[in-house]
Amino acid sequence: MLNILVCVKQIPDIDLVKMDPETGNLVRAGVPTLTNPLDLNALEAAVQVKERYGGKITLITMGPPMAESTLRECLAVGGDEAVLISGRPFGGADTLSTSYSIVMAAAMRGKFDLIFCGKESMDGATGQMASQLAERFDAAQISCCLSVDAVGDGKIRATRALETGREIVEATLPCLITVEKDRFFGRLPNLEAYLAAKKAEITVYTENEIEGLDLQKIGVPGSGTIVPKIYPPELPEPGQIIRTGSARSDVGRLLELLAEKGAL
Amino acid sequence: MAAYSKITPEIAEQLRAVVGKRFYVGGEVDPNYSHDEMPIYGKYMPEAAVDAETTEEVSAVMKICAANKIPVTCRGAGTGLVGGCVPLAGGLVLCTRRMNKILEYDMDNLVVRLQPGVLLKDLAADAQSRGLMYPPDPGEKTATVGGNISTNAGGMRAVKYGVTRDYVLALTVVLADGRIIELGKSVCKTSSGYSLLHLMIGSEGTLGIITEMTLKLIPSPICDVSCLVPFRDVESCIRSVPKIKLANLDPQSIEFMDADIVTSSAAFTGNPIFPERVRNEDVGASVLVTFTGYDEDELDQKMIKLGEIAKEADALDVLVVATSSNKKSAWAARSSFLTAIEADTKLIDEMDVVVPVDKIPAFLIYIRALGDELGIRIRNFGHAGDGNLHIYCCSNELEEEEFKRRVKIIMDRAYTKCAELEGQVSGEHSIGHAKMVYLRESVGEDVFELMRQIKAVFDPDGILNPGKVCDSTLAERA
């Protein structure tokens, strides 16, 4: 039976997050959260593998207690058990310390044959986690996966997207896979699974419960990067669409604007 | 029946004196004013157009047009589907798009006062930002609210909340001769003579021009969830609808979709949120049921009950649309149905019949057989909860004239079938000029004549939106 790990992240609804113009910080208070959509694509790929080859899917995330809702959402569409890494010392982590925390917590649940990750998170969008995790798990990595073609005999064969075509690759297990979103649309949960997920038990690991965890490698102390400032990119002046109601008056308005700018 | 006059340079000057640069004549007129979203019904350019901004301007324009017997066709966003805003008699198009201000909210009485050119999506979003909801929810969100009132638009939430008519408290209307009248008040009930307010609603600009509206709002629901219930076939799908309605679950909407439209929508949006196969079986048709409630526990209880009904009705499953991402995807897909059909269809015609809910399968089976017989592809979706079906006749192969010939046969027979099933010609798209002949057959000569007499009281010279609803005199004026 395949032991499958799917890494997921709860993010603020990126359509609703605003930036504090004075501090440069993202204002997340009161902003609804959602599960990183690309992680749901990864979960769907994992569920399809489980349906074809059998196996168990463990979901893992790191975040505040409210991140439980993301795990329950994922349990409803095919996850079998869920782990939440939560505690103040994990806060402020960059990808280096997050990948360390996830690997250490995952080790508490045994060894994994396959690890599925979203391509990146829609909020941070570093795209670094998958490669870091593959390294820390000592796993092969297949990125840009279009389809999982075969799993067996300690190997996986998959098709991945290249800029110029496709590539069929084979790797030994364990293997970490990131998927192309258009190939693995998330499914809707059925009612039974949705209601069961609401009551499912979720394993919560604090910093004290993860064996061998080095507190200097988690959270801010374990981060290899510092973010001194966040600021929105400078956008070019937006274009203007002239719609006055008729072509003739549109042209008239255009001539006026060009004259105002000294172009005529 | 007197013939209409043309807009002479002198009349043009009078109109220009009222609205200034917002008067357009000849080649200045936006060519889009010649049609709505169903160009198969023909294109008719007006001689001139005005973009009105105030009630007083509309009144002044109408006085000029009444004095000179100039036909006037009022137009909002032009998103209609029956040629309602198309200037069949030429004349003047009076566009209300620039009358797009939300004037004030009365939070004590939960009403909003606005101009007719406000878009439905803008009103919905603005009300939402105040914790309020404007319940009517027609699929075309870029329609103007004035247009919604003129057609008594319905939408997906009609099952629970009713239609546009149920939310109109008062209107300011400019009559054909330019007089300004007020209909209705901001009160919850009235028993005060004939309701001219309700006569004006759904009259498609044939009785007067709406220039200001007072609408009823409700507090926004606290939470909501939708369930997709897939079935093997249309019959078992529709049979579940009365059971869902009877179960005291108070659904906000019960939307129907068949397999064909789901496939089109997935191809169009690139997001197959509605599955084509469930539990290794093909899905023939589904209903999308939406509940609102005070908290998640209440919604869970409603869904559990729905699950029991679905099981008894032999549904393939019950799928939950609960997360914000899935809700966005599901409603984007549902809202895309018409656009998806338009995107991959060369020739298209539609009907918007409403039949008793239990008669939906009989009508769909009949119309599909007609389509097969005549080589016309039939695609449909609609509001299962209230029996309102949107049926599209499509072809990519036929020449236009042949398409029209075959579709006329389908329409003639389908509306006869609709009448047999005790249905109505239009649930929410209205009559325009495209469906007038079917309205006449449906209501009979006595009722049709009464409609014409009412029209004559409001508009004795027939200058308001000629050739629409019950005005079959256009040929006589030519």
Question: What does this entry look like structurally?
Answer:
The complex is a heterodimer of chains A (264) and B (478). Chain A is built from six helices and 13 strands. In chain A, helix 2 runs antiparallel to helix 5 and helix 3 packs across helix 4. In chain A, the strands form three sheets. Chain A has a nine-stranded mixed sheet with strand order 11-10-9-12-8-1-6-7-13, sandwiched between helices. Chain A has helices at 37-53, 68-76, 95-107, 129-137, 191-199, 247-260; strands spanning 2-7, 10-12, 18-19, 26-27, 33-35, 55-62, 81-85, 114-117, 140-152, 155-162, 165-172, 175-179, 203-205. Chain B folds into four domains: 9-97 and 453-477, Uridine Diphospho-n-acetylenolpyruvylglucosamine Reductase, domain 2 (2-Layer Sandwich); 102-219, 2-Layer Sandwich (Uridine Diphospho-n-acetylenolpyruvylglucosamine Reductase, domain 3); 223-338, Alpha-Beta Plaits (2-Layer Sandwich), CATH 3.30.70.2190; 345-428, Alpha-Beta Plaits. Chain B has helices spanning 9-19, 55-68, 120-128, 145-151, 158-161, 196-200, 234-246, 259-269, 296-312, 324-335, 337-343, 360-374, 400-420, 436-443, 445-458, 474-477, and strands at 23-25, 48-51, 72-75, 92-95, 102-106, 111-114, 132-133, 168-174, 180-184, 209-216, 218-219, 223-231, 253-258, 277-278, 281-282, 285-293, 319-321, 347-351, 377-383, 388-395. In chain B, the strands form five sheets. Chain B has a seven-stranded antiparallel sheet, sandwiched between helices. Chain B has a five-stranded antiparallel sheet with strand order 5-6-10-8-9. A four-stranded mixed sheet of chain B has the order 1-2-4-3, with helices on one face. The longest helix of chain B has 21 residues, at 400-420. Chain A binds chain B through residues 13, 32, 34-35, 37, 40, 73, 76, 182, 185-192, 194-195, 198, 245-249, and chain B through 21-22, 24, 27-30, 49, 51, 95, 227-228, 270-273, 275, 300, 303-304, 306-307, 317-326.
